[in-house]
Design a protein that fits this description.
- It is a single chain.
- The protein has one domain: Alpha-Beta Barrel (TIM Barrel), CATH 3.20.20.210.
- The strands form 2 sheets. A 7-stranded parallel sheet has the order 1-10-9-8-7-6-4.
- The chain is built from 12 helices and 10 strands.
- Strand 7, helix 9 and strand 8 form a beta-alpha-beta unit.
- With 324 residues, the chain is of the alpha/beta class.
- The chain starts with a strand and ends with a helix.
């Protein structure tokens, strides 16, 4: 059993700690600092959030996606055939994203996340996983003015995203996570999403995973199990039917067990973590479990996110020490 995170970590600490990144973004927008100076501040914050994950005891960390505005925009703005449009509400949250607009054939021009991944690895004593957007979610959350066909757009994105996966593997990435929550939110496209994931990840020489959140995979989990991914991340806080989904299938992959609420400041107890792990172990053995939050932690105050990770790790270790 290992512990991990889903991706983004809160960028802004509570007072009295300085909100360095927010201040730097404001200065850049006013023209008071350059993009290079902003990048140096993002580096500093990335080092901070990696250190916090490690201090909390997390086994496999991320770079916190400090440079990402959201799960779509950071990657999409560096592709050809896409421009970034206006703000849209992200699902049922109080956060917004700038909607990618598909204006021509989508194309991968150069590595987007490779330098970020290499920087994170150099500044982490724990394994780091790379994070990428999922082709289906990117397609659903974009405004398609070119293909006018969800399937064509999704498969085109999968083909281009694979080039980023290959670039990450070329620099030594051993774990690559694809964030594709719309698979469980827009279940009618689950079969298409699975085909896109296969195109993106089949034959890749690294541990690959797909993570979903905010809803359950009941009725579509078999599609994910048919993909070549090693890890399937499910949200057991907001996707309550995931328990029923597990009962309906033979789950032979590693489960990303999302049991710590990434959207609520209430702090779970170690015993709650232990009980949840005991329950899920009826379907998936502990050696095939990643214990992680239900979603990324950026919806929470930074100190709360840190406390939740500490409790999650303590609960997982306690569960691991209890005889079966």
């Amino acid at each position: 059993m290992q512990t991990t995170v889903v991706g983004a970590y809160p960028k802004i600490p509570n007072r009295p700690k300085p909100a360095k990144l927010r201040a730097a973004l404001n200065k850049r927008d006013r023209g008071d600092i350059t993009d290079e100076e902003l990048a140096r501040v993002a580096d500093e914050v990335t080092v901070e959030v990696i250190a916090e994950q490690i201090e909390a005891g997390v086994d496999v960390v991320s770079d916190g996606q400090v440079r990402w505005d959201d799960d779509q925009t950071y990657f999409a703005r560096k592709m050809s055939g896409i421009k970034i449009g206006g703000l849209q509400r992200y699902l049922d949250t109080n956060t917004y994203y700038r909607q990618p607009e598909i204006t021509g054939p989508v194309g991968w021009k150069e590595p987007v996340t490779v330098a970020d991944y290499e920087f994170a690895v150099k500044n982490s004593s724990k394994p780091v996983k790379a994070i990428l957007p999922g082709p289906y979610s990117l397609a659903v959350l974009s405004l398609d003015k070119h293909y006018n066909d969800r399937e064509k757009l999704t498969m085109a994105l999968a083909e281009e995203l694979r080039k980023e996966v290959e670039a990450l593997v070329a620099v030594g990435a051993t774990a690559i996570q694809v964030n594709d929550p719309m698979i469980v939110v827009r279940k009618d496209g689950a079969a298409l999403a699975a085909r896109a994931l296969t195109k993106m990840l089949d034959g890749i020489d690294a541990e690959t995973g797909v993570y979903t959140w905010f809803d359950g995979a009941y009725g579509v989990l078999h599609h994910l199990l048919d993909t070549p991914v090693d890890v399937i991340g499910l949200d057991f806080v907001w996707g309550t039917d995931n328990w029923e989904a597990l009962k309906d299938v033979r789950f032979e992959k590693t489960l990303g067990f999302g049991i710590v609420d990434g959207r609520n400041t209430r702090l779970e107890t170690e015993d709650e973590i232990v009980e949840a792990i005991k329950r899920v172990s009826e379907f998936v053995p502990p050696e095939r479990l990643y214990v992680n939050p239900s979603s990324n932690l950026e919806y929470l105050p930074r100190e709360t996110a840190f406390d939740k990770l500490k409790t999650m790790v303590a609960g997982a270790r306690k569960a691991d020490s209890v005889p079966a």
